[in-house]
Amino acid sequence: MNGNSCEEDIRILQNNPSPLQTKHMPGNKYNCNPSTPRSRLERLLRERELRKNRSFQQLNEGELEFSGSDSFSNDVENWGTVDEEEFMEKPRTFSDSNERQEGRPSKQRLLVVANRLPVSAVRRSVDSWQLEISVGGLVSALLGVKEFDARWIGWAGVNVSDDIGQRTLTKSLAEKRCIPVFLDEEIVQQYYNGYCNNILWPLFHYLGLPQEDRLATTRSFQSQFDAYKKANQLFADVVNNIYQEGDVVWCHDYHLMFLPQCLKRYNSNMKVGWFLHTPFPSSEIHRTLPSRSELLRSVLAADLVGFHTYDYARHFVSACTRILGFEGTPEGVENQGKLTRVAAFPIGIDSERFIRALELPQVQDHIKELKERFAGRKVMLGVDRLDMIKGIPQKILAFEKYLEENPNWRDKVVLLQIAVPTRTDVSEYQKLTSQVHEIVGRINGRFGTLTAVPIHHLDRSLDFHALCALYAVTDVALVTSLRDGMNLVSYEFVACQASKKGVLILSEFAGAAQSLGAGAILVNPWNITEVAASIGYALNMPADEREKRHQLNFMHVTSHTSQEWAATFVSELNDTIVEAQLRTCQIPPSLPIRDAVDSYIQSSNRLIILGFNSTLTAPRDSMERRGAQIREMELKLHPDLKEPLKKLCDDPLTTIVVLSGSDRSVLDDNFGEYNMWLAAENGMFLRLTTGEWMTTMPEHLNMDWVDSVKHVFEYFTERTPRSQFELRETSLVWNYKYADIEFGRLQARDMLQHLWSGPISNAAVDVVQGGRSVEVRAVGVTKGAAIDRILGEIVHNKGMKAPIDYVLCIGHFLQKDEDVYTFFEPELPFEPPPPIPRAKVADAVRASMSQFSPGKSGSKVARFRKQRSLSAIERRVTNNLTTGGWWPTTRDRMALHEGSSVLDLKGDHYFSCAVAKKRSNARYLLGSSSAVVALLKDLGEYSVSS
């Protein structure tokens, strides 16, 4: 690896953390620009400051500002929309080219991919289209973010099958920076109405999967999921056609969960973010979905995954760990070194637009009219889609209970409920409408009078001005969602309450409760009694408390706007790419197979060291463990390796060593028929398959700690279902690979506290934590410490005279055991000259042994600094060459002269490879045990039988 090049890349990336930031001259590690962001937090803070400065500069230069919706947003996510006239006019922020403005860098292109475009198309003739503003969309969130050159990709809401219609519609939409995705009627029915709205949406809102006949459900799931994947691929094809290097692709919502994977397959360097606007359910709910694993893996292909709240993000990470078996970290989800960042980004509204709207004459007229209409009565307000998740019946029943218990308030309070109809053709929604109408009629008939009724119910939406006026005169807003991604009605209400300072009663199951919980009254909408009591508390709340609660909410709503949400997400995505590039610089490259094979052919005395578990075993998907746990507990050699291993073992020029942490019996069972060396328990036991086991353990190894550690392992095995522990002669291993992952981690943490405070507090042991295991072993028991002694035995047994000129070391080793990789690395001198191979150091020691002169050789050995710790034999030789007075025993002389010093490696004849593990001290990487199989097959083709 070219270390200098990598360091230079890191410096450049640190100096240019994002395309949105200004460039700096690259510094070096001794003389860095003090303004260079050194950490992720510094980069994001600087990006935020630059964003604020740009916004301030644009306002001073008189750039246009664009507002959001003129009507209540009644889509699933409560996204805002924009005024049709404003959107249909070509905004100055969407420039037709990426040319630089004077003194200002060009804008980064942002490809926003959502199921629907911000406009809908209505066909007027064969070659003519009328564009109408859509209900919902991301326009209000992104128009205010002026540093991006945004394009919109999505379905236009109309099926166009003829070529002329598609061409003319594409041309019309291009003027609005929109690119259509054309879906035929069958795909829309199966993908949108079927899989998205009938399966994913109910599941994500905790309504469960549709209850149908099991066989019919299975067929329906599969056909709808196939249509879902096909539709996502159509979206990906459109993105790929317009994608340019450096673009940011932002995918939205559950309609496009398969899209990140499709995009990354096309271009692995594409910047891809994915955001969910609904709740993400707990892993126990998500695991009921037949396609659960495919969808999770597809989303994880994105660089950054965003949710409205931390709860949803935590549920997603939990699903990935429990269902896929991946590693959940504070940053996100990690799989074999690939990190997908997962974070919470609460969306907001364009609060300034609502605040400004209150000053408009038409809004003031509405306010005056409403005040006169409801004079002398407190106004309670509910604004919802008429949907099962909005809790409208629960809200009305709680209001009824309050009127029952407080008869003195019956003439003093009115509930205005705006219920926007949706999916009126679906029977469940029709039933809900009838239920709500029945409850409202019953309550009005019970508590109403000839001149007034307690509930005013509207089955329609209001225009923007009327809605703002209604927010402004409201005393108590009542949001009782049973499950809601965010619910921005609560934000809109707070933005319009500068003078009234009304009270917000908010469901704890709405995402907005995470943001507005400090100032709102949180309720469980299923608890009718609690909601009724909260209504009474809100109506009688003192003015000073209303003031404090409102200020808390108002401060959040005005500072966490929709524009800030969009800018923050894209900024985090850019920074995530920077961090990924920094990590890539530290990841070893893939093994150059051709070079490894060529060096093998050219060499005359080869040593191949192989790990066992996850290296020579057959790969298994994590989900297969559920049905094959007993089989996987018994490690088995990959069946495709039997023939190439035999060829390599029969080659007289090749020595094979299987170096494993497993027990001796495991290696005997798998490799007894091959002519090779077996090193069990991290090299502490060694044998040639034609001979007997011998020990290579250091003398005076203290094992008094074993019994006490064993008792601790037994205790935690009993209390952790599906865990197990293994007692070896030099170590104990507790494995929770098959246990519940999160529970296993908690138990492992508890176990470590018990061990450190008790059994091993004063013992000479090392505690090694694996991915799903805890191992306690004696100090010095590592593969790297054992390899020198193993080499000595091999050299002595074979009577090896020719130097070893080729070493291939492959394994999936624990971090503690990766010293075996560095054992064969060349040594570095004190001074800058080129590295001196380890063989020359050994030659110096060997020369000193044959021409023993402490004064002469001592200074020669002392010139070299070791990259690894010396073996015990080398330490004794080196120390006594400088001090005199010690001569090695016969066995030590053999091990030194015939073991370590027999190596004569050139740098390009040593290949160390980590398998499926990107954080490693190895020189190279191999993706899986299948890649190991392919490599050994290639080497076997050039092996000569003895």
Automatic annotation (TrEMBL):
Keywords: Glycosyltransferase, Transferase. Its EC number is 2.4.1.15. One of its GO terms (molecular function) is alpha,alpha-trehalose-phosphate synthase (UDP-forming) activity. GO terms for cellular component: cytosol. It holds the Pfam family Trehalose_PPase. NCBIfam families: PRK14501.1 (NF011071), trehalose_OtsA (TIGR02400). This is alpha,alpha-trehalose-phosphate synthase (UDP-forming). The lineage of its organism: Eukaryota, Viridiplantae, Streptophyta, Embryophyta, Tracheophyta.
